[in-house]
Amino acid sequence: MPPIIKVIIPAFNEEESIAYVIKEIPNIVSEVIVVSNNSTDTTESVAKKAGATVLQEPQKGYGYACLKGMEYIASKDPKPDIVVFLDGDYSDYPQELTKLVAPIVNDDIDMVIGSRVKRLRESGSMTFPQIFGNWLATSLMKLFFNAKFTDLGPFRAIKYDTLLSLGMVDKTYGWTVEMQLKVLKKRYSYTEVPVRYKKRIGVSKVSGTIKGAIFAGVKILSWIFKYSFS
């Protein structure tokens, strides 16, 4: 019996891109959940028209949106076997979801990160703060935990039971690194799959602003140091 897979897409003003993202998600997915994170454009109606379940999370923050999606999944049956997180800006290639879930389905891996490796990245698709932040965070995780991560990529798949056991709490930019750190601390199995990456549609809310980049960096480092000395 094939696994039940659900996708959570946090989205803030992604009216230009969200339909492309939803339409390219493989049909092995049973439900696509778009969490509108206080969008002020037509993101919600466009996502609904494209066939997604649309939720609203007025509290702004990437983690807030992800937690809202998890809350919805917990309230419905049947529960999924795998949850995939994907951004709504069309920078990832949604059809690569099959590559992402394969290690879970075939090898019983707990979590898979889509790694935005340089050879598969479109030129200019990642800003300098993103590239440096990824290098710093993954280097520190290697130093403190002997981790093998190379990216904090938002395109990721995780067993639903594993996700629940992590007790995720971060409400903003620390969501991705919190998940990876907790997987390390609890000694769950993980791997990375190289994925393609292209320039997003629209302006990034994190890397597109100095304030966003700094705040994200502080959040990521604070999680790493918290777990390194606890």
Automatic annotation (TrEMBL):
Name of the protein described by the UniProt record: Glycosyltransferase family 2 protein
Ranges where the Glycosyltransferase 2-like domain occurs: 7-138
Highest taxon of source: Bacteria
Cited PANTHER family: RFBJ PROTEIN, UNDECAPRENYL-PHOSPHATE 4-DEOXY-4-FORMAMIDO-L-ARABINOSE TRANSFERASE-RELATED
CDD domains: DPM_DPG-synthase_like
InterPro entries, A to Z: Glyco_trans_2-like, Glycosyltransferase_2, Nucleotide-diphossugar_trans
Protein species of origin: Aquimarina celericrescens
Pfam family, one: Glycos_transf_2
